[in-house]
Amino acid sequence: MPEITGKSWIMVLTLGLVWGATFLVIEVALEGITPFWLAAARIGFASALMVAFWGLRGFKLFEQPLGKADILRLIWIGALSSAVPFMLLSWGQQFVTSGFAGVSMAAVALIVLPLAHFMVPGERLTLRKVAGFVIGFVGVVILIGGQAFESTGESMEFFGRAACLTAAGCYALSSVQMRNLPTVDSIGLNAVTLIIGAVIVIAAAWAAEGPPPQVDSKTLYVLIFLGVVPTAGASLLRVMVIRTAGPVFMSLVNYQVPVWSVILGALILSEALPPSLLLALGLILCGVGLSQYGALKRLFGGA
């Protein structure tokens, strides 16, 4: 059964803030490096850091010897957690609006619900949960605005949209599969999945963009930051949330990210706040409250 505590809420709020701010940092990094190599550098630095921490813990992973099914599931999770969805998004976003890509990521929460119902013990689908997640999703759509469903006129737009939604499905499925692993060391699990993702992304970057480019010191520092904070650190928090509070609770992050992205864009880049912000925020909070009513009641001392 999922155990949702005050610590779980703090971790999810932190993830939303970190990933919401990541878009701003990526814009800076893209001034000095190509997109695929940016992702490869992020996951490469993150893997190196997590392997070092994992080594300090004696390279512990599972408490019992690994079975073939566990090894295959681990490889599957590593691919679906970062590498495959990144490549799908990178390709798909050539043909769709950024708004549609944002809505696709918010859809992760809706995809997780039925998957968790059938695949994770204790994550039963209820009318209240469904209503809460749908209300939150509507809030995200309102925040992003009508551009989310505007056509780009690209001949490959249908396939681009399919790629974005498939990426969302990858994130959802990896969360559910991660929850179903036997007892495992969180740092070890994070290190292994990052290594698997790094191998795939680096190979894809080399194939798509050639050898790694030279970067200036500013870009290098930004890449190290991206590898340490929103990749290594945030992915470790993601593992911890999924393993304790469950994939459905973890999916609440997907409703936070666009909110933080808009707010931080206004605070740091002086971008205009959309007039729909308060309405969207209200719907998202109502959705979270409704879907997590039991957890909130326990948190604040209810019966």
Structural description of this entry:
The chain has one domain. The mean pLDDT is 88. The protein has helices at residues 6-29, 35-56, 68-92, 98-106, 108-119, 127-144, 157-179, 186-209, 217-245, 247-250, 253-269, 277-291, 293-299. The chain is mostly helical and 303 residues long. It has 13 helices and no strands.
Low-confidence runs of at least 5 consecutive residues? none
Structural class: mainly alpha
- Categorize the overall geometry: globular
- State the separation between the terminal residues, measured CA to CA: 19 Å
Largest sheet: none
Compact overview of the structure:
The chain is built from 13 helices and no strands. By secondary structure, it is mainly α.
How are the elements arranged and paired?
Blueprint: H1 6-29, H2 35-56, H3 68-92, H4 98-106, H5 108-119, H6 127-144, H7 157-179, H8 186-209, H9 217-245, H10 247-250, H11 253-269, H12 277-291, H13 293-299
Name the descriptors.
303 residues; mainly alpha; 13 helices; globular; transmembrane; AA-Vitamin_Transporters; membrane; Putative DMT superfamily transporter inner membrane protein; EmrE-like
